[in-house]
Every structure is written in C-alpha cells, then in structure tokens.
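Journal club prep — side note

Before the paper discussion, L.F. wants everyone to see what a predicted structure for a comparable chain looks like in token form. Sequence:
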Amino acid sequence: MSIQAQIEDKLKTLSPIWLTVENESHRHNVPPESETHFKVTLVSERFEGMMPVKRHQQLYALLADELAGPVHALALHPYTPDEWQARSGQRPDSPDCRGGSGA
C-alpha cells in the first residue's frame, strides 16, 4: 500500500466530509516517485470547538508512524464544515520548494 493510501485510510477514521491527500513530493528535490511531502485538507465535524493546534496534534498522532519514517513534510489544513464553507472550499496553495538536498 502506498504511503498516500495509508494516510488516507488513517484520516478516514475522523469521518471527513471532505478529504484530499496530495503527494507534493514531485515539487521538491527528491527522487522520482517519492512519497515524502504531502498536503492534507480535511473537513470534519469532529473539529467543532477545537483550536487549530489541537486539530494538528490529533492529525500528527494519527500519522505518527508515517512522520517517524518516510514522510518528511506534511502540510495540514483541517477545517470544520462552516470554516470550509466560509473559504468556499479553498485551501492555501503550497509554497514553491526552496531547494535542499535529496531525501
């Protein structure tokens, strides 16, 4: 199973209304077909009443194995349904890679 699929499976436990896991590794200085850099957009009612830092902590805990191993970077965009609607279903674009060494 790919790293992306593992991340998706684990995040589905949060009953998302919207979930995208984007492999952005190709935008970085890593070998082809790498799975090291991801962007996660997750909309869930479970985030209601939860401060953003607590949302991130919950996602980091779910993805601890991936972060301890193959995943080098993880951009998280967790929203409540109302926040997602207020953003018109848009999440921030990722910045361009600034270089660095290979994975």
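L.F.'s comment for the group: The radius of gyration is 14 Å. Keep this in mind when we get to the figures.
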